[in-house]
Amino acid sequence: MISNRAPYDRWRAGEGRALSEQQRIGARAFRRACASCHSGPDLSDGGFHAIAPASRDHGLGEVTGRRADDGRFRTPPLRNVALTAPYLHDGSAQTLGEATDSHGAIASGLGAEHRIAIVAFLGALTDRAFIGDPRYALPQSACGVAL
Known about the structure:
Blueprint (H helix, E strand, L loop, with lengths): L6 H6 L8 H13 L14 E2 L10 H5 L8 E2 L21 H6 L2 H5 L3 H12 L4 H4 L9 E2 L2 E2 L1
Antiparallel strand pairs: 1-2, 3-4
């Protein structure tokens, strides 16, 4: 299953009006503040990063036993992210705004206008054609039994 017809994809392919002005501002701010971890086709480098001071949840450190890995979590892909609340590894952010604000020093380096624009940009990662495709819907039955 490939989701690649979101407004963001159309904009990258040259369709200038696929994103609103606010989403374009958000795309530029996202590139500056977020793309070091959220990169590639699915907007994830697949790596483990600490975005805030380590909490009781040790993250990767729980697996490796290395104190240096405490608080590090895999970067999630952002395709269709506006549909996947709650956010963060523990579901502690109910909105995309809360999730972006939780990124500590990264978020504090952005003004409110840019944080809001980034959230608008994240909405442009939703591929409505993909999520509305009946081929990917939950089946109504399996093995002759209604689900």
